[in-house]
């Protein structure tokens, strides 16, 4: 089935970060298609008739009229203390193009995506485009949305077949994403999956073509980007809450990666969306 040239309509797109309990229930279902991608912390989300524990990297896909229920509550942190932390991108969209795309193939209702994947960049870009107050080129948003939908299909088609090695590598990746905001060592990662440090390092590199600590840095920088743009946190708090030991180090690696300081990044992105 060939996709038409119709506009893909984006009704709502944004980023939410919760530090207080939150509950939402739409028993009659969402009124459009919905993508929800967890970037930080965890929550509970309706999935296959029950409440599913959502982790960092989980992308949920909803069709119109599917029941939607979200619960964000206290969970223990690394020290065993209760806390609330949940960050996500959410996009409500529809239109003839979306209908054609959705119906042309079967897809899982939940997909696990690395935080460093280009799909995350598209989610961020769509959220910023939607926040524009005055936009003389609304079709740009439609194009971004189409690229996101097609990128999800390509991502699914490129996934390797699962096996023991792949399973362990993804367990390591999940550990990194769930613990990136805290200080951890390679020993902690290896102990989590029950293998030696050298084997953990090798399996992760083989599966994802990057190192464990480099991926942890990527995840931390991704967290920081969202908080710099979408939260009122002071930059020092952004650095600390995103897993960086001190602001000086955070400032150096951020500038090295993005070519500007965290302050300059915040100014440029907020000017871009106003």
From TrEMBL:
InterPro entries on file: Homeodomain-like_sf (IPR009057), HTH-like (IPR037923), HTH_AraC (IPR018060), HTH_AraC-typ_CS (IPR018062), Tscrpt_reg_AraC-type_HTH (IPR020449)
Entry keywords, A to Z: DNA-binding, Transcription, Transcription regulation
One Pfam family cited in the UniProt record for this chain: HTH_18
Domain HTH araC/xylS-type: residue ranges: 170-268
Record carries keyword DNA-binding: yes
Keyword Transcription regulation (UniProt): yes
Domain of life of the organism encoding this protein: Bacteria
Signal peptide start-end: none
Listed PANTHER family: ARAC-FAMILY TRANSCRIPTIONAL REGULATOR, HTH-TYPE TRANSCRIPTIONAL REGULATOR EXSA
Name of this chain's protein: Helix-turn-helix transcriptional regulator
Organism lineage: Bacteria, Bacillati, Bacillota, Bacilli, Bacillales
